[in-house]
Amino acid sequence: MSSEHFRKLERMYLLANVNTLLFDTTTAHISNGKAEIGLTVVPKYFHALNAMHGSVYFKLLDDAAFFSVNSVVEDFFVLTKSFEIHFKRPVTGGKILAKGELVSSNGELFVAKSELMNETGKVVGYGHGEFVKSKVKLTPDIGYV
Question: Measured in whole angstroms, how far is the alpha carbon of residue 4 from the centre of its chain?
């Protein structure tokens, strides 16, 4: 896979409305079979007990695993078929980093895993899922530029 493909995926991801309007401190680094998604945790991501809501864990873990898969698929956008997460500890601030890695592929079904770590390197959550190719081509009209 080419580094140009990785940079296009990063730009597409970072320019998506969900990341520019809501998760505006998001960072992304994609390489062959791997992806890292970072975020600075702020109170707008908290539930009633003043810790990060589970939906943010899910987003980061799924996104990291997803892009580890799409890093090896250069023609089509992939889709999450299923994804399971496990919570280990609450997050109340700081920077977090999700690291995703492609585990296996048969060309049609891709399996990836990811871990979410706080800024001290402790794992706060982890997940794994299955991904498939969609029928949507990676083109400039979906932000792949």
Answer: 19
* pTM (global) more than 0.85: yes
* DSSP calls for 30-45: EETTEEEEEEEE-GGG
User: Which of 83, 86, 71 minimizes the C-alpha distance to 8?
Assistant: 71
Q: Which of 23, 26, 34 lies closest to 1 in space, CA to CA?
A: 34
Looking at the structure of the chain, the number of domains it has is 1
Instruction: Return the CATH number at 43.
Output: 3.10.129.10
Q: Note down pLDDT in tens along the chain; length 145 residues.
A: 789 999 999 999 999 999 999 999 999 999 999 999 999 999 999 999 999 999 999 999 999 999 999 999 999 999 999 999 999 999 999 999 999 999 999 989 999 999 999 999 999 999 999 999 999 999 999 999 9
Rounded CA separation 28/38 (Å): 6
129 occurs within a structural domain: yes
Cβ 130 vs Cβ 110: under 8 Å? yes
